[in-house]
Design goal:
Blueprint lengths: L7 E6 L2 E6 L12 H14 L5 E6 L23 H23 L4 E5 L2 E3 L1 H7 L3 E5 L3 E3 L13 H9 L1 H10 L2 E3 H6 L5 E3 L2 H16 L3 H14 L4 H13 L5 H12 L9
Helix pairs in contact: 1-2, 2-3, 3-4, 4-5, 8-9
Length: 270
């Protein structure tokens, strides 16, 4: 299933959706067409009751080299009058939504990263729930080296993932981070020999998540996202309220029945 996508691919494989950045000849650089297409894909994933997990990857030699500066050059041109600045501001807000829809997608999203993951690509994976990488991966908040501030989510999300010290170092230097250090500081969950092994691991993990009770998995994602910038009591209150919505679900009763009958439960998301 590809739909009208031109710079990404979208395929639904049973309970798992796979979205791949698909400009391999340009190292999957993020051009203007990318942002609305990735938003549409993840809105579709979030709304589809048959999909339980999504994988985000890249075709070709790199996950993504980041913003396509040549294709996006028109953003930086002009007289810098108030109207143009206002238009640019709202354009950036739309681009931010392309990462927000990943973070806010009801289904868990696994990033399968290989090769370069630069600039805007780091914004994308920071919005994912789980990140796996190949050993040739390298990561960079490159904006400081091209006269910009990262404004699509990395500066906001990475401190919660790798801590402020590591985030500040990356943001202030624009340096490359190799895969080993990415693992050590918690940017990625695990490393694999190459792209194929990383993708296979992502698919195996996706199936493992898909086999769990979907209402519970989706509820857990909501609780984690909500609680990130709340105090403990507010987070506890939300988790209690959220759990009460599913405690009487058919999946809970199926879990009990499966335990009694000594079999694996078959969750329906009901």
């Amino acid at each position: 299933m590809t739909g009208s996508y031109t710079v990404i691919s979208f395929e639904k494989k049973g309970r798992v959706a796979e979205v791949f950045l698909n400009r391999p000849d340009k190292s999957n650089a993020l051009n203007p067409e990318f942002w609305p297409q990735i938003r549409e894909a993840f809105q579709k994933i979030s709304a589809d009751p048959e999909i339980r997990v999504a994988i985000l990857g890249g075709n070709g030699k790199n996950f993504s080299a980041g913003l396509d500066l040549v294709a996006s050059a028109s953003i930086f041109k002009g007289t810098e009058g108030s109207a143009e600045m206002d238009s640019m501001y709202h354009l950036v807000l739309q681009m931010q939504e392309s990462a927000n829809v990943i973070e806010e997608c009801r289904k868990p999203v696994i990033a399968a990263i290989h090769g370069a993951c630069i600039g805007g690509a780091l914004d994308l994976i920071a919005a994912c729930d789980i990140r796996l990488a190949s050993r040739d991966s390298r990561f960079s908040l490159r904006e400081a080296r091209v006269g910009m501030i990262a404004d699509l989510g990395s500066l906001n999300r990475l401190p919660h993932i790798i801590g402020e010290g590591h985030t500040r170092e990356l943001a202030f230097t624009g340096k490359d981070l190799d895969a080993e250090r990415a693992l050590r500081i918690g940017l990625v969950n695990d490393l694999y020999p190459d792209r194929e092994a990383c993708l296979a691991a992502a698919r195996a993990l996706a199936e493992e998540i898909a086999a769990a009770a979907p209402l519970a998995v989706q509820g857990a994602k909501e609780v984690i996202n909500f609680s990130r910038d709340k105090n403990i009591r507010d987070g506890l209150a939300f988790s209690a309220a959220r759990n009460c919505l599913i405690l009487k679900s058919a999946d809970v009763m199926e879990s009990v029945a499966a335990f009694v009958q000594k079999r694996k439960p078959e969750f329906k998301g009901k």
